[in-house]
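Ticket opened by: R.M.
Priority: normal
Category: complex prediction / small molecule

The reporter submitted a protein together with pyridoxal-5'-phosphate and asked that the result be attached to this ticket for the collaborator who will pick it up next week. Submitted input follows.
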Amino acid sequence: MPDETPTMTPEEADSYRDRFLARLAQTVPGRKEIVVARASGCTLWTSDGRRYLDMTSGIGVANVGHCHPRVVAAIQRQAERYAHVNVYGRFAVPEQVELVERLVSAAGPAFETAYLTSSGAESTECALKLARKYTGRPKFVAMARAYHGRTLGALSVSWRDEWRAPFAPLLEEVAFVPFDDLAAAAEAIDERTAAVIVEPIQGEGGIRIPSDGYLPGLRRLCDESGAMLIFDEVQGGMGRSGRWFAHQHWDVTPDIITMAKAVGGGLPLGAVLSRAEVFATFVDPPLSHLTTMGGNPVACAAGIAAFDVIVEEGLLEHATAMGEYLRAELGKVQADLPGLLVDVRGRGLWCAIELSVDANPVAKLLEARGVLVGSVLNNAGTIRVMPPLVITREEIDEFVAVVRAILTDLG
Ligand SMILES: Cc1ncc(COP(=O)(O)O)c(C=O)c1O
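Result attached by the on-call engineer:
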């Protein structure tokens, strides 16, 4: 049991709260309650010794749990050897090779090569450029409720006018179509389309799972028109859904996979996977795409360790079993409170509790009872539940008991 004694006085914690608001550019209003002291597995402790059950994994990052000893050891080892020595592409970096070989083996034989980045938005940028350069076409087709990041290119293929309009003009030729609507996609995809970009299961859209024919149908439409198919696995990858990648629940292969979040085992790392022949376009002319920090060796070492933990601890199977248990238990709460808890859905440990009311105040109530959950950006009623894949049955029971208590009070 970790030491739960406070790591700072209440005055010191308050000072950090004030200085955080003053010094860190804010994108969400309001004072921050939690001052983090440490984290381990599915638990996070605050500076005053309070314990929280983390059902967010830092929004899909801590898939192997916080501070997994193997990840910590790998970071320490690599940091002692070298952290960063030159820009991506100049030296052969063994940690990058070891990581990418693991990622392409998990993705399947259609994938040979990866470009390493530092974040999800950066992976989106890389994929959009790759598709444009490879096809020589200008247009993208994206989905309603999609989220691919906040940089200008990623924002151009992300949904919701309120966040797009203030930054116009964005990329010009982007057509948004409803998710899971093949007829609408067929209308939008044409001979000018470089790529269709889609989250196989929508994360910020509310953990939306498409019907079985949808992703294979998009594949067919892309093949017919010569467009590329990009699957954004930034949130859904690295075992979150019980498979390495969410699209592996269906028989479909994209041209490009983007990933980030959990791939670095807690450190900033992203990857874009495709065929070697597609990436060859970035050498013509040389330096067509670049990043200084992408594929940082310490992040790669952490990513290798996290990948191996998923394999050796059987976390894909565990996520599948625990996800089914979680949804079954939440289903019992829904049966008792059907007017308030209107849907429970998900795959693996990627789960939505759909409420008939705004999810944000309910998430606050959960936080006050020691449970961290998230809402999602593009669906007001969804509570997002995505704990570390190492979560135990007992921790799920603890979570469901708190959900039941709070919803019963509200119901
Ligand atoms: C599906 C998806 N793509 C891209 C991103 C952007 O990733 P990042 O925040 O690392 O830029 C996110 C972030 O939540 C995401 O969920």
